[in-house]
Amino acid sequence: MSQSPRTRTVVSCTLLVAALGAGTTACGSSDGHPLSAQPYDAAGQISFNAPAGSQKADPDKPLEVTAEGDDGRITDVTATDAAGRHVAGELDADGARWHSTSPLAAGAHYSVRVSTEDEDGAPGRKIMTFDTLEPPKKKQLKVVFGPEAGKYGVGQPVTASLSAPVKGKQARAVVERALKVRSTPATEGSWYWVDSETLHYRPKEYWPTHATVSVSSNLGGLKINDKLWGAATKPLRFTTGDRVEAVTDAASHTMTVYRNGEEINSIPVTTGKPGYSTRNGVKVVLGKEYFVRMRGTSIGIAEGSSESYNLPVYYATRLTDTGEYVHAAPWSVGSQGSANVSHGCVGMSTGNAAWFFETVRQGDITRTVNSSGEDMPTFGNGLGDWNMGWKKWRQGSALLAGTKEGPAAVDAARLRPGV
User: According to a count of CB atoms within 10 Å of the terminal CB, is the N or C end of the chain lower?
Assistant: First the structure.
């Protein structure tokens, strides 16, 4: 006569008690259930709507586990893909049925762990696996993170470039929730949707000095909308150096350079003259070029006019996409520290320009004050991200817009200490 899983478990426990001797309790509890019993195979108690064998499941269809017969119930279901992403689900109060409430990922391998108990309370378990269909390649959204791996200044934002436009708050929330930024030391931060294909991420304040920043995506296989599924993304890791900040006062014709809050140099400079005034605001260093040929035609000055120029320039540190630099300007040394005579750049002696060139790195902070020029835009001409206040920046997030600052907001931003 065959024995039920429940009967076999009790017999094995009884034999163990006998072997240990009278008065010894090797297993058992006040209600008579064996505490050390191994869960029985619950395959006969449950049914599963995913295909068997080599067939793959449709990720658009919910996952469902159902208890069979009247002699047991489901107590717990955990469904996880190979990337460690959990599938949310709901279990009926009577334990008769569990169904997923979040979509499955496409092209994923899932493991489903089902826990049950029979009518006597004995635990059962069944682990099942299945794969989901791959999404069409033409419908996959690719993400490229920036900058490249390396060491940067504390003002360097993270960028995410999308291969296709994403519109609508719900679709953007799926994307943004999957893009994770972690820093060590940890600091609060948020993504901002610059447009439908570009996101920028920055902390509330600048990055901590000597921090490690890790950027990754869990978007692979996730359904974004009816037309797009997420593709795998190459992660990014970079570090920060000291906090280097150069403040140019256009009124006093002086640049003051600070490292970690302490002044390390004061340099006489010239900035943009009337009609070509240097932009006010924060500009993150974009890069450095030892030699640049600067022409007036690049900023709309007609060749041959009184303002026309064509000059070889050395030690050029780029601040904007439209050609604003900090550079050597030996032709204007007589005006440096006393007058503004440039076409918008910050000019200084060759020696000072060489020192500045060697001192700063990409991602360091420059700031212009007391100029009659326009304000540096937040986007569209380099990295002006820090010219937007934090409260407004948060409103550019699909997850944080309309929420108040606090622990929940930090959690939604997915900023965590590095592990």
Answer: N
Q: How would you label 274-303 residue by residue, b for 16+ Cβ within 10 Å and e otherwise?
A: eebbbbbbbbbbbebeeebebebeeeebee
Q: Read off the pLDDT band of 37 (50, 70, 90).
A: low
CB 384 within 8 A of CB 377: yes
- The residues that are catalytic are 327, 345
Contact 367, 247 (CB under 8 A): yes
Which residues are registered as beta bridge partners of 193? Answer: 199
CB count, 10 Å around CB of 137? 8
Q: Where in the chain do CATH 2.60.40.3710 domains reside?
A: 137-241+392-416
What's the rounded Cα separation, in Å, for the pair 225 and 219?
12
Once rounded to an integer, what is the mean pLDDT over residues 13-30?
A: 37
pTM: predicted TM-score of the whole model, two decimal places: 0.82
Q: In terms of CATH, what superfamily is 244-388?
A: L,D-transpeptidase catalytic domain-like (2.40.440.10)
Domain with CATH 2.60.40.3780 in the chain: 42-131
Fold of 42-131: Immunoglobulin-like (2.60.40)
Query: Tens digits of per-residue pLDDT, 74-120?
Result: 999 999 999 999 999 999 999 999 999 999 999 999 999 999 999 88
Q: Cis bond leading into 135, ω under 30°?
A: no
pLDDT of 19 reads: 35
Alpha carbons within 13 angstroms on the beta-carbon side of residue 78 total 7
Mean pLDDT for the chain?
88
pLDDT at 20 over 70: no
- The two tokens of residue 158 are 């993270």
Give DSSP secondary structure letters for 157-203: -EEEEESS---SHHHHHHHHHHEEEEEES---EEEEEEETTEEEEEE
Distance of CA 266 to the CA centre of its chain: 37
Q: What is the rounded CA–CA span in Å between residue 54 and residue 269?
A: 71
Going by pLDDT thresholds of 50, 70 and 90, the confidence category of residue 300 is confident
C-alpha 189, offset from chain centre: 10
State whether CATH 2.60.40.3710 applies to domain 137-241+392-416.
yes
Distance of alpha carbon 373 from alpha carbon 309, whole angstroms = 21
